[in-house]
Amino acid sequence: MFNDLQLSDALDDQLSRIAQKKGVKAAFAIDKATGALLKSSGQLSLVRSTHSNGAASLPSQTVGSFTSETVTQATPSPDQTADELSALVWNYVTATDSFVGELDSEDEVKLLRLRTKHQELVIVPDKKYILVVAHEVHGN
């Protein structure tokens, strides 16, 4: 069995390897229980752009549902941007877990793939963390 230090080192290695692949913008891990950003590699700022007015919104974390509450600040710091992105992904995974649980209580989410016009997010929930890889989309 891995202890927490071995898991941390293995996660660092995995994120570094993934972030070096062609087209990958960033790779990061989120604590599955809390939604906190654990580790990241690459440029998270490339994954989430600020709104056209220069303000960023931070969603409040809610288990099992989405919320419209936001906190707006003029210029987000890189740490704030990373925290916001982690919260968005965590809310998405949590809502999807609830959805799958409603369909079949014995089933679980293994992989989420979200493709937009600008990028693709591959999200892999694990027991302790959620692995996220953001990469460029080619051939629009």
Automatic annotation (TrEMBL):
InterPro entries: Roadblock/LAMTOR2_dom
SMART domains found in the cross-reference section: Robl_LC7
Bilayer-spanning residue ranges: none
Pfam families xref list: Robl_LC7
Gene3D superfamilies the record matches: Dynein light chain 2a, cytoplasmic (3.30.450.30)
Top-level taxon of the source organism: Eukaryota
Protein family according to the UniProt entry: Belongs to the GAMAD family.
Descriptive protein name: Roadblock/LAMTOR2 domain-containing protein
Organism: Podospora australis
Lineage: Eukaryota, Fungi, Dikarya, Ascomycota, Pezizomycotina
